[in-house]
Structures are given as C-alpha cells and as structure tokens.
Amino acid sequence: MSLAAAAAASGFIVFLLSVQVIQGQNGWGVTYTSTKICAVKGSTVEIHCRYTYPSRIYGRQITVEKTFWFTKMYQYRPLDLTTDPQYSGRVQYDCDKIRNNCTLRITDLRESDSAEYKFRFTTNQLTGYTGSPGVTLSVTGLQVSRSNNGLDCQISCVPDRPSFIWYKNGQKIQTEASSYYYLSNYNQEDSYSCAVKGYEDFPSPPTCADGQTCNRVTYTDRNICAFKGSSVDISCTYSIYKNHVESKFWFSPERKDQWQNPSQPADLSKDSQFAGRVQVIDTEGGHSTLRITDLRESDSAEYHFKFTTPSFEWRSSLPGTTLTVTALQVQVTRITVGQFVTLAELKCHSSCSPAGRLSYIWFNNKVKIRGEYRSSYKARFGLSDISCAIRGHEEFPSTSVYAPKLPSVSVSPSAEIVEGSSVTLTCSSDANPAAKYTWYKKTINPRPLSEGPQLVFSSIQSSDSGQYYCTAENELGRRTSNDFTMNVKYTPRVPSVSVSPSGKIMEGSSVTLTCSSDANPAAKYTWYMENQKVLQGSDGVYQFMSISSEDRGKYYCTSENQHGRINSSSIFIDVQYAPKLPSVSVSPSAEIVEGSSVTLTCSSDANPAANYTWYKEDEDSPKASGQIFTITDVRAEHSGNYYCEAKNSRGRHNSTFNPIIVSRSMKSVAAGSITAIFLAIIFVLAFLFIRRKRSWKQTPEPRQRPDDNAQANMGAVYDIPPAPRQTTPSEQQDDLCYASVSFSKNQEDPLYSNVRLNQPNRHREEEEDEDDVEYSVVNFKSAGAATESIQEEPAEDSSVLYSTVLKKPRV
Fold this sequence. Notes:
The chain is mainly β. It folds into seven domains: about 5-140, Immunoglobulin-like (Sandwich); about 215-325, Immunoglobulin-like (Sandwich); about 325-400, Immunoglobulin-like, CATH 2.60.40.10; about 410-480, Immunoglobulin-like (Sandwich); about 495-575, Sandwich (Immunoglobulin-like), CATH 2.60.40; about 585-665, Sandwich (Immunoglobulin-like), CATH 2.60.40.10; about 665-805, no CATH class. A five-stranded antiparallel β-sheet has the order 1-2-4-11-10, with no helix packed on it. Strands 22, 24, 27, 28 and 29 form a five-stranded mixed β-sheet that branches. Strands 40, 41, 43, 44 and 45 form a five-stranded antiparallel β-sheet that branches. β40 and β41 form a beta hairpin. About 30% of the residues are buried.
C-alpha cells in the first residue's frame, strides 16, 4: 500500500505523481497538480487544477461563466459530476474565478469511482476549454491473504516504508508491524484483519487463518447516511466455528459513558434513548439487522455487533458501521437582487445522499411545485418559502429557505428603564439561512450602531432615549423591524428659572416666574420665597397679577419626580415703586433754643432709593438736599413749618409739616430783665428824689414808717427805706402804689423790691384808701416765655419781685 493511499484514507489529498501537466494553446490551458492518484476505498480525495484563458477575443472581453469536472459524456456533452447520480451528495467544487483555480473533492470513495477526471470551463463568448488528458484516480481496498506460515496485507498502491496494524477476532493485537504477519500458533477459529497505521477507519475485511470457516463479523456498509425522521437498517453477517451463540446484540461505543460497566458494552435495545425506536432482525445464515426508526441527528454514531459462545467472544476494536443522520438542505448557489424581488438559484443538498439516480420534489410555501424534479431550482423570493425532498420520500423534506420574516425587538429588563442601568435590546427574525442583524437609531441620516442580534447599553443615559430599529438580512432578502421607543427615566436636571417681563419690575405690574427642568417622568415644581413655600404645581409657573413691594425678595424652585429632587439657583425679584409717605424726625426733640443746632432726618420706603429735598412752608426755593438737614446757630427767623420731598424715577411724595419753634435762651432773658429792672429802679429813684426834693421845700411833718410786719411778710430782697417824713392829715391811703417785678428762673430765687414814696401832705395813715393801691406784676420765664402776665394776687407766686410805688396825691 502506498503513502498516497494512506493519506486518501484520512481524507487528505493523495499524490502519486507530482509532475505538473499543462495542456493548452493560444493562452488557453489547464494545469493539474498530479496526473495519477491512488486512494483507499471509503476515504476522501481532492484533485486540484489551475486554468488560463486570453483576456480578449477579436477585441471582446472574455469572462468565465461556468466551471465543472466530469468523467462521462452525455449526449455528446460533458456530464457535470454534481448532476451525476453516481456522485450525488459526494462531490463538491471549490473554485475561485479570481485566482483561476478549482478543486474537486470526492468523499466516501468507492471502487467504482476509479476513472479519469477532467476539468472544463466555458466563457461569455460561447467558447470553452477542457483540460485533457485529465487525472487518473484509482480506488483500492486492503486484503489479507494466506502466505506460507503467515498472512500478507495486500494493497494495489504500496507507499514507501509503510506501517501496518493487525487485528485478531476484531481485537487489535499488533501495531507498527510489516505487511506480513507470522502465525506462531495455528487456530482455525481465529480471523485476521489489517490496516495502515494512522488510518484504522479503513481496515481490510476479516479473513480466516486457514481460509475456511472461522469466527468473524462483516458489516454490509461501512458508512450509511440517512435523513432525519426516516428509518435505517444497519446490517452485518457473522459466522461461528462449530459452536452455538449464547448472546448477541448491537451497541454503540460512543455511548459507553452510559454503560454500567464501561468494559462491558450495553445492549442498544435497552437504551432509553432508543426506546420504541430500535428493532433487531435476525435471519438464517448468520445475518443480523439493526433497524432504527424516527431518526434523530443525535443518532449519528458508529454501531457494532457482538456475539459470544461458550469458548469465544468477538471483540470490537475493528470499526463497525458509521451512521450519519442529516436533513436535506436547500443551498443558495446564485442570487440576483432586484428592486422588488430577489432571484435565486437553489440546490437540494445533503451531506450524504443514497446511491443511484435521484429525482427531487420542490415546495413553495409548503405547496408542491409541479414539473420540477431536478436537484436545482430557480425561485423568486419575496414572501416565498422554498423547500425540497427526494421524490418518494416527501415525508422527509428539507428545511425551508426564506428571506427574514418581520424582525421583533425585545428589551431586557422589561421593567422601567432607569438612567445608569444596564439595558439589552434583542432583535430576532425567523430566517433561513440565518439572518445577520444590524441596529440603528432613528435619525435623519441613520447610521449603523452595531452588528449582531443584541444592542447592549452597559450604563444607559438619558441621551440614549429615542426610537431604535433593527434589520435582519440574509442572501434572500432584508426586513426592517418596527420602531422601538427607548424611554429612559431619570432624575430632574438643575432647574432653570426665568422671569417675565425680563426688564425692570414695576409695582402693580403682572410678573410671571417660570421653573423648568429636564426630567423623565415630568417633574413637579415647588416655589419658595426666602425658604417659605409659596406655590406647588405641575406647570412650574408662579404668577403675580399685581406685584407689590412686599413681594420683593429671593425666590427659587425645586424640581422633583419619583427618581429624585433638585433645587434651582436663587433669583432676586427687585420690585420698583415710588416713595411711600416720608417720615421726619427732629433731633433734639425738646425745645429748640436760639443759638443751638437742630437736625431733621427724612426717610421713605422707595425702590430705587429716593433722593430728598427740604422745603420751608411758603418758600419756593429748597432749603437743602439730602436725607439729613441740619441748622446750626438757630435764630428766631428759623422758626416755621418744614417738610421734605422724597423722589425717585417712579414718583415723588411729600412729608407732612414739621414746625420748628425757637425760644430765647435763659441768659439772654435774664440779662434783659436785670437791665430793665435796674433802669426801672434808677427811674423810680430819680422820680422819688425829685418828689422828695419838692417835699423838702414844704413844711415837714412827722411820717411814720410802714408796718414792719408788712415788709417782713413780703420778704423783700431789695428794701429802699424812704426818707423820714411827717404824715399830714390830708394824706390819703390811695396815694400808695406798688410795682412788682418778678424774675423767674426755673421758678427759683424770687426777688422782691418794695418802693414807697413819702407823701408830706398826708396826715393820717389810717385814712389811706386801699382801693387806691395799684400792683404791677411782671413775670420773666427762663424757658423762653415771650409774654408778660399781670396777676391780681402776687403773693401766690414766690418768684415775684414786688416794688411799691407811692402815687402823687390826688388834687
């Protein structure tokens, strides 16, 4: 056996000759990597080639339209291997029109596959070229034959220095041996097999050591492919040497993890996975068949047959029958996308297909399409649903191929979406082939956000709110989901505060404060003035229909929803108004004495602050400006009514009259009074002196002095004793005059002065007439009194100074 055969057994490319062969002329040609290949039965082989062609013919551009391999001619034309029933499901092309190469892959090789394989390509100019001669493939198997005292492992392709494995009664006995096995102990019951090391899956059939009857098991099929849902029969023949069978059953080594004792296989008919689906059919002549119904893809495995006799047990190192359960598939081989419809070329395919020429059934939306029995079909896709089945096995159709259905969008978590949380959007669509997904956010010019079925927000933000949609696309079409609205809830942002009107605010005008905040759900607002709640509502508007000066102050609002609360910054509402009635204060508030100073202060509530002007009643020109008006060195002419005017840009207002009364000072009054008294005394003394001088010229008469008690009672301070005189009979009492002068300084220190004139013509004192006496009382008040008062009874005032003046006798 050659190394090429060993490589083929493992599914690799096998080269017997590495010489490149080029056929062609005028730029046309095909190059094969090898011209001869030998491969082992049941293995996989690959045949490679590269082709060339001219770029133009008669000035026309040349392009390749079709490439294929063939071994036979059909109606004088090459028969594409993919349409040859003998190779159904076992042939695959891997061609690259850019690099101009193509590979033929044949699986599950059979001896009937031995042939010459050629490559052909056609162009758009109705021309083509075939690479001839092609590549000769030889498919062979291993055989064990008797040779003298041993066994020989024979193969038509022998590699250099091969290594073999030998099996006895199905059990591996020797590795890395030669192709010859020496029989040391001859036993007629034993059977032997061989395989190339590394490719144990392709051993020779068991052979009796003596060429006669022996214990052995031979499987009818090394590989079986069946459709999902169908039934399959796995068969073998077995022979027993002069014994009877004690037990026999089918098992799968791949399910040994479910055996109670891994070293002892378990009967497949007792496996719960196959309950009701497995049947063993034994016939005469040593035939056993394992039938499995309602096949599942999980049934794909290798199956073995085992029997025992009283002195023998068939082992299981040799490979059994490999079952592959598959479903038919519709493959898209070519597609043309139009504006409203997609045209696709389809092929009904399975990874393994039964041998023989097959015909197919095609379905559109589960309805059979009549007249279509080939493995390929051209279909128009919109809402179409295309599937296929092997004719006669319509109950086991392929899965359908179709453009994506309308995608649906789901969100996780499904509860309320809160800012900062993790959110996942999932797009799903029923499509075959499987759809590819793309996410978009709905904008004027949407751009892809991400690819894949999921759009993940690890920490979602309010800016992520909006409408999202996804597209699902496969080779057959593209669909767009409905819009999904992402509504992200979040705490209120810092509120903004506005004032309307935005200019100066006049008292009595209408003013509106508006609080607004970005929040989801919508926020509720509360207005505060100097930390005192004044309004709560959902619109955030606080309105003054007629604002007043009392409304002046700092305002702020709060924005709140179930996710949080936040305050705005403060604003100051400055209400402007005309001055209120001014108030005037006078300092000092007691009597204002001449020569002192007085301060008048005017104040008025006004915004903006008022300017002040001072006026005196009945005078047009202002006396002063400013809030404070001070008069220094007050005089009598400063007396009068004063008022102030408060004025700002909004208006003016006058205060009420404030009288200023100026009194003379105590020293001035006292000095004036004393001066007047002295002048009066001097005048009286002069008068008395003159009278007395006259009286001296007359006869003097004795004169009695006035009652000393009267003088004592009067408490005179100044007593001017009269000159001695005599009292005449004609002297009358009513000639006596009293002049009383009173100086009052805080009603203390009374001064009295009695002046009495001698009347020489008076003779009797008792004849004096009291009605002729006159009293004059003058009161001087140091508190600024400007008037004199005459009193009838001066004795009641201790501050009165009395002066008695004697009148001239009446004639």
